[in-house]
Amino acid sequence: MSRRLLLAASLAMLAFTANAQAQSRWTLTLGAAASREIAHSLFGSALPRLSGSLLSGEAIATRGRLVARVRYGQGRVTSDTAARDIVQGELLAGYQVRPWLQVWLGPRARTFVTSGLSDRRWLFWTAGLGARGGIFPGRVDSFAELWLGFSGRLNRPAGSASGRGVELGLEAMVPKRPLRLRLSYIVEQGRLDDGRRDTVEGLALAARYQLR
Predict the structure, then answer these.
(1) Given CB 3.0 to 4.6 Å as the disulfide criterion, which of 38, 40, 50, 190 pairs with 163?
(2) First to last CA, the chain
């Protein structure tokens, strides 16, 4: 799927739902997360393993079945012999197909910053699915989100890339407050056709607050 086709499909979806959502109000949810991450890189013969922490924030706007999500995070991973800063972000548009199912489209990026060397930046145009199910209805839900990069680039060495990721976890609702707490496991990977790749996995704790 080309970027033009993706844009046309997104515009068509928005136009189709615009009248139905005309009387709806936008709802804004803000979130913050802290995660412990492990990064594995396979570039050449070396396979360094680095670990560290990452802080991130997000904003989610909803109106009827339409959803938009922005995330940004940064942190640092180290080993005995190496260190890297990590910067990541996403800008996604979504649609609530069912109360328990969402579809997502948009770009995701992750940059590895190494002192004295050029940054290594992965950029993907992605499609994804998000699903949730009630464990204790109204109190605790499970959730899963999967995405696949249908178009991607790596800047160094420059070339086309593929990517994918998954997030699995639990979300608890705080009684009498518009606050949700989330615990999730995340794994994402970007790779080139020759086998070179970066993989990041982590455990994250997040809080989301819905503005009234």
Answers:
(1) 190
(2) 38
Q: Please, what's the largest Cα pairwise distance for the chain?
A: 58
Is 202 in contact with 38 (CB distance < 8 Å)?
Answer: yes
Buried b (16+ CB within 10 A) or exposed e, 36-62: ebebebeeeeeeeebebebebebebeb
Which 3 state secondary structure label does DSSP give 7?
A: helix
- Percent with pLDDT over 70 in the chain: 85
**Predicted model pTM:** 0.84
* Mean pLDDT computed over 171-200: 94
CATH number assigned to the domain with residue range 29-210, chosen from the 4 options 3.40.50.1010, 2.60.40.10, 1.10.10.10, 2.40.128.100: 2.40.128.100
Q: Which two tokens stand for residue 203?
A: 């455990």
